[in-house]
Design brief:
alpha/beta, Rossmann fold, 5-stranded parallel β-sheet, 12 strands, elongated
């Protein structure tokens, strides 16, 4: 059963409210007519809607204030807010002062408004899911992509950067961030160049994932490692490169010698019908990465269990 979407409408126009309520009821949307502006935030906080529509055509300052307060709230800022504007206002609007996600000009075309609602929801989900550093899809998209791959001749591959924390602590966060961006670019470009389609995502920190056809998985892993090794020297000073290691403190605060950065890749074929959940894929990958990290150099390990 499809969940009913809820739309909150703030407008003084009774005819508009009645028209939208009639249209959206037939499309399995629940329209919530919001009360006076002073009470809007309380209603939204108590029962967050999927979308908020604000009629700005009357140029009521209180309506604009509601919009700003919603977008300044760290939790509710992800709720798409669409504005209803007169055609004259559309060209003269200062969008920095009016932080809408989208708008529809009056008189309202209900079908257009419905399409813009659905598109704004998808856009907001993409924006909030993407990792802010690498710009790659985040955990929600990753889970969905893995679930879509289950039962197919594809491989879900997890990448971990070896000894990243001591590198980050020693060389600084800006250098560490550049390593992560570099890893994202290498992975995304290599998967795309394989010509097999695929998916790339950033779990967080130094953990990444990509999905590709099983027949191309080893070649993609090999190429990612090769590309990473080519530019690894740019990440260290001359002394560290000469001796082949860098000195940093471990998790206990004890100075140790760490090898230059490498990567471990866990390759999980998901055509096995015994794997029926994304959580199981992650569990197998965790075991494989432990094996890969035992290697002194970058490597990948494939789950070959039947």
């Amino acid at each position: 059963m499809t969940l009913q979407r809820s739309i909150a409408l703030l407008s003084e126009d009774r005819d508009l409210r009645d028209r939208l309520e009639k249209h959206f009821a037939s499309e399995r949307f629940r329209l919530i007519v919001l009360p006076a502006p002073a009470q809007v935030l309380g209603v939204v906080y108590a029962d967050p809607p999927d979308v908020v529509i604000i009629d700005l055509s009357a140029q009521n300052p209180a309506y604009l204030q509601v919009l700003k307060e919603l977008k300044q709230d760290s939790y509710f800022s992800e709720i798409p807010v669409l504005g209803l504007l007169s055609e004259a206002d559309c060209g003269a609007m200062s969008w920095e002062q009016c932080p809408l996600d989208d708008f529809v000009s009056l008189p309202v075309n209900c079908r257009e408004l419905q399409s813009r609602i659905l598109l704004s929801q998808q856009r907001i989900r993409r924006i909030f899911d993407n990792n802010p550093l690498s710009k790659l899809p985040g955990n929600t998209s990753i889970r969905h992509a893995i679930e879509q791959a289950l039962g197919t001749q594809r491989a879900v591959c997890y990448i971990d950067i070896n000894n990243f924390k001591p590198y980050n602590d020693t060389y600084g966060f800006s250098r560490g961030d550049e390593v992560l961006r570099m890893m994202a670019r290498i992975m995304a470009n290599t998967v795309r160049e394989s010509g097999a389609g695929g998916f790339v995502g950033h779990i967080g920190g130094d953990d990444f994932v990509f999905i590709t056809a099983m027949e191309h998985a080893e070649a993609v892993c090999t190429r990612i490692i090769e590309n990473f090794n080519v530019i690894i020297s740019d990440l260290f000073g001359d002394m560290d490169k000469t001796r082949g290691y860098y000195v940093a403190k471990d998790r206990k605060g004890v100075e140790q010698q760490f090898p230059l950065l490498g990567i471990s890749i866990a390759v999980v074929p998901v055509g096995n019908l015994k794997i029926q959940h994304a959580g199981k894929v992650a569990e197998i990958a965790a075991e494989l990465k432990k094996l890969a990290k035992k290697s002194p150099t970058s490597c990948y390990v494939i789950d070959r269990r039947k």
